[in-house]
Predict the 3D structure of the following.
Amino acid sequence: MKIRDIDLGERPVALAPMEDVTDPAFRLMCKRFGADLVYSEFVSSDALVRSVNKTMQKLTISDEERPVAIQIYGKDPDAMAEAARIAEEAGPDILDINFGCPVKRVAGKGAGAGLLQDVPRMLRITRAVVDAVRIPVTVKTRLGWDDNHKIIVDLAEQLQDCGIEALTIHGRTRAQMYTGEADWTLIGAVKANQRMRIPIIGNGDVTTPERAAECFNRYGVDAVMIGRASFGRPWIFHEVKHYLATGEQLPPLTFGWQLDVLREQVRQSVARLDERRGILHVRRHLAATPLFKGLPNFRDTRVAMLRAETVDELFRIFDLIAERWGNDMSATD
């Protein structure tokens, strides 16, 4: 699969853009484990135009994570075009437009998935961004606003006509948020549309290597994107890529090895921020990781782990976990 001259290989697997998750350290870790394309956190066009420092920091990328995309969002075509030019100066390989974020503070203000209710404005924004930069522009969006307005098949053609060079589709409506199951049938319908010439990337509930393979084989997508399933499990890209290449499950990763990866996530988070903020930032990964799922009598340890305020305290709990549950075979299932 290619996005212009960026060759991502056969059946690439991408890391989804996620606010407060896909920071440079996490992107690099997922890249290390096999992610073929990584995305920045959401970047507000209005804040970028105003040079808000916290937003400008989201433009930080490194050569080690390439190819990398910066994703911007907003509702004003002029501001989005200007933000696109600013983002391009940071040197990403791809510029992505967020037309899919469903949260109220974004969609409720007419940006992100909110633009699924104003397609003419969405298309004006897309054309403005495409015209503003030299690098490839892509879009990430959803099936539609709700079950009565699943517009993605027609919308995909319209976005293509604006000049985008790839389209990522999350198989849910905005009304669904992140609930229920992702519906890939319309993603498959977009890919099967003979008028579509650009790559189609499917997103939503890709949580296992088998599901990734099914999405390629059943729906014909050019790439799959993994989001929440990477929380506390950046090695999922290693598992998926191995399965796609061999048709076989990767040999079980040891409990200790996975725990060491989580330790590294903690260290990187603290190094990027500071001890207090770094630990707060990584807690969602510790809460979501499948490593601790099913461990007997784990509740009190889990509470202590998620309340730890220093690296020493947290790593002492990790040592206790390794000592008490490290040989539990259920941890590698």
Notes: The chain has two domains: 2-246, 255-332. Confidence is low (pLDDT under 50) at residues 329-333. The longest strand covers residues 37-44. The radius of gyration is 20 Å.
